[in-house]
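User: Okay, second chain of the day. Same drill as before: sequence in, structure tokens out.
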Amino acid sequence: MKNVILTGFMATGKSAVGRVLAQRLGYKFIDTDNLIAEQAKKSIAQIFQDEGEAHFRCLETELLRQLENAQGLVIATGGGMILPEENFRRLKKLGPVICLTASPEVILARAKRGQTKRPLLNTPDPLEKITQLLEKRKPFYRLADFTVDTSGNNPAEAADSIFTYLKGA
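Assistant: Same drill. Structure tokens below.
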């Protein structure tokens, strides 16, 4: 197994679970949003504000091109990175795609207490926005090789489930 890809909606625990899983596997952990922010020399929120979501999605695709020969990584993707078909094909080539899920209410609670500003939730009714986006992305998230609901799990428990799956895959 070259790498492990974690996808799923924002605030489902991709970074927290990814760090635990990487340690277990002896892999390096990377967060694509953090890499994009470093390369752009601005926050994701600032990229959304200055150039828009479409430009951010182009940056995600470019980063995947840069990672195509990577090995030994647990890669936490941005929540929408899986949407373009080209991106999904690239992710599948990198390794098994694991989708983390959570209920809309859990996502909202986590997003509110998180340190990161969530540009897509800058709306009068963020719970409704989460529900709409989850519904839109559901067909893409279903393409994952394995899914873990993190609503009631801590990062170590979710990582255990993924580790068990990977051992049997």
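The chain has a mean pLDDT of 93.

User: Thanks, on to the next one.
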